[in-house]
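Researcher: We're teaching a course module on how sequence relates to structure. For the next exercise, students receive a sequence and then see the predicted structure as tokens, so they can try to spot secondary structure elements on their own. Here is the exercise chain.
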Amino acid sequence: MNGCGFKFMKHLLFIFNFIVWAMGIALLAMGIIIRVNSDLIGVVADNSWFTAAYIMIAAGVFIFLVALVGFCGARNSNKCMLGIYLGVLVVIFILEIAGAIYGAVNRVAIEEAAKAKMTTEVQIRYGQANQGVITDGFNKLQTTFKCCGVNTTTDWYSSAWISGKPSFPYGPAVPDSCCRTSTLLCGVNSTAHANAVIFNATYYSIGCYQAVRNSITNNLGLAIGVLGGFAGVQVLGMILAGVLIAKADEEE
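Model: And here is the predicted structure for the students to work with:
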């Protein structure tokens, strides 16, 4: 490979490293976002998500450092650094493929587990003593996704929350976070509960399970595109690192 071509490959790897850096920062940010929004995410997912958040934070920092190794290796034509960079990229790529396959194979089970957890929160834990995190989290979920209950608003009618409040004067009730315009005690509006048209105009009509699922589905194409782009960058980075390692061997 002539000097001009070699320099071009090195500079190309520099560019890809900046993208890998961005990947690390994005992963770090996602982990932090999940951890900061633990009250919301905890309503639909188990504690493994919080472990995943810490793993994502650590992985983001790790990928950032790996990109730094690749940058230094390319800049100094250091075969050892480039070898480490290439090896780590291969491992990360394999883990990404494995994760995608696992998610695809277990998609239904993951969805059912999330639905079962949400049902437990609504029917048993919401509004109960020492369940403030769950109560606040589900209120935030309903407000954020503009939804009510798990499948429908009537999920609340048989919940422990409403059975513990016999003083409701109008019978059926929903939390105020179900209201399209949230005001104090809007969830026990007698007129709304007695008239279907007014009810649908007053409360969110879609269940939170479907609302969350719709949100994920609507953004799935973008997520696949971004992940596919990252995977492509990794493959090109591996190819460039391999070429530079081969060039370093020639010069020895």
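Model: If you want an answer key for the exercise: Residues 3-108+231-251 form one domain. The two ends are 14 Å apart (CA to CA).
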